[in-house]
Amino acid sequence: MTTDIHRLDPDSDLVAYFCAEYGIDERLQIYSGGLGVLAGDHLKTASDLELPLVAVGLLYEEGYLKQRIDADGRQHADPDPVEPERFGLSVARDLRGRELRVHVPLEHHMLHVRLWRGAAGNVPLILLDTRCEENRAEDQGITQRLYGGDHTTRLQQEVVLGIGGVRALRALGLEPTVWHLNEGHAAFTILERVREQVAQGLDFSAAVECVASNTVFTTHTPVPAGHDVFTLGHLRHWLGDYLGSLHTTEQRLRTLGQIPHKPEAFSMTALALRGSRFCNAVSRVHRDVAASAERYIWPGIAPEDNPIRYVANAVHLPTYLATEWQQEFDRRLPDWRSRELQESDCEWVHQLADDEWERRHLPAKSRLIAELRRRLLEQHQRNGLPQPLIDASLQRLQLPPERLLIAGFARRFATYKRATLLLGDAQRLARLLGDEQRPVLLVFAGKAHPHDGGGQQMIAELYAASLRPEFIGRILVAEGYDLPLGRALTQGCDVWLNNPEYPLEASGTSGMKAAINGGINVSILDGWWADGCDGSNGIGVQPRVDLSDVRERYQAEAAAMFDALEQQVLPRFFDHRGDWLRMCRHSMQTLIPRYGGARMLCDYVRTLYGPAANHGRRLRERNRRNAIEFARWKRMVAGAWGGVTIKVTSVDPLRTAVTLNGLPALDICVDAHWPGGGGSLRLDREENGIAQFALDARAPAEGCELRIRPVHPLLAHPFEMGCLLSVPLTP
Questions:
Q1: Which of 4, 152, 181, 447 is 20 to 30 A away from residue 267, measured at CA?
Q2: What confidence score (pLDDT) does residue 677 get?
Q3: Does residue 409 carry a pLDDT above 80?
Q4: CA distances from 630 to 83, 112, 278, 301, 619 (A)
Q5: pTM for this entry
Q6: Is the pLDDT of residue 33 over 90?
Q7: How many other β-carbons are positioned within 10 Å of the β-carbon of residue 90?
């Protein structure tokens, strides 16, 4: 174990990581896109760092979908059977050799759930499925397909993942000290762990505090479709008897999942936030978006002050670095796989002469070209495309790779990612791609959700464009996007285009994979790129948030993308090769350390896992008396807070009088904030329910604000209760 993760004890700590999908290996098709691939990278990096972690997910009978694009550009979602044995999965068995099962309550009966064991490196992977002969036929189909079925199927899958996942870990004798929910799909773990605490004698409120104390929740998207919302009616129907075992009122349960203006709604994101004391977004921009969107959890707190923090996503370097670069790292930094890298570790890329750098990059580009040619030839022949059109479509894949610029797009075809943005100015795009002296190839690959008509329409539009005379052979649309094609594109492309609708990107990781291989990102400054771009390691395009008209904004941003390609990329790539390669080297040096998985895992340990493990231990001290008393204190504060007031009695020196409304004065903190400074007021005296606070330092007469909040040594965050009273300093 490295010194960077010393805040977890491998002998006593264990992180339980829950996710609905995992993109670990192409042999195990239980992922749909970025969330699953990120989860797979999380596990593989945890293995490299010897982090004590166990992962829990679902084993689907069929993967997300096997994509086929027909002659009209329509996406077909063919079945993609999962073969667990190919990945080395085996059914978990008890000491007598019998299949190990757990049972999950569902609609007044018990669901039988099978456990499978696997591993991502040294990290155990536990996957659950419902294909047990004891189950009803409809129940056996719950885990048939990743994100398949309807709203009811989604709820059932999340019951199996959350409640069944906790019971699986218990059945295996594992006792996690940290519980990490990667998106809200796993939020029912909170209810199950609360039920356990209630069964051991805690009341519901104390049980929630105990569970939340060591729970980490990561939210990944601001797009509403990424946040599951059910109704209390759904919960009553599918979990009626189980909900009774929580020994609480329906109103208290409703509060856990409540969202504004929807009294019957039960949000899994809200449940995860209220049931965790450590929560994070996945980039700086996304943190601000999530903090604003979920501000209702902490109603008295400004979004910039609420407890949501961020840990920037990253990628598993050994998975995505091209072989040639891995060999170079092995020679220069033998321990690069098992530690957090710094920029100084990557300075050697600047020591490579231009021709040496090219010799390491060109093989990956050649492999990409060969893979594209193979896939597209098979695709076009199957669809019956005439041979002259096939030849024209593949013509530029014959060009020498050192003279070919490939601009890659490999990600989900969600509408907010705007894959067709550049098609909005077809004439300008034709000029860009049509210069025979500067041959440019634009490659698209990715899947749309089977129910996302807009995303599928984008694929059809791009496919149709790829066969138009001015674009044939210049725009390529490859079907069957998967981990191998994603790796080939990110390792072999020269430029990575990304033009999402700001601020909906959250993070994105595909551009990171291109960057660590020396590819240049040309991207809207959203998600990770808003922090990653320094002006010399790629090109950042400012989102036009000043334009309120969507059409006008899209046109302006497309024009800016064209400007970047025409005025910066093409001249450097074709005419000023030395400048281009300096940018490529700088991309690698600055972005490999920053977006390598080790940095991400160390950040999680430093800011989330370590603090959560310690906080959980504190709440459980004295046989959980701390949790009981803390919950009681919170109820007292919540009941009294509406009657707390503050009055300024003197400005110079600063003195205030706080009406406590029954709260002890020591449970109150008064801070003064002004531009560039501030300070805490000391308690001077208390009498007759009024506390006098004083500031020993001088406060400015203008621009000063007083903030009063409750304080307690067991608060994980100063504002976790959402209680804050702010008043301007006035005489």
A1: 447
A2: 87
A3: no
A4: 48, 37, 17, 21, 8
A5: 0.96
A6: no
A7: 10
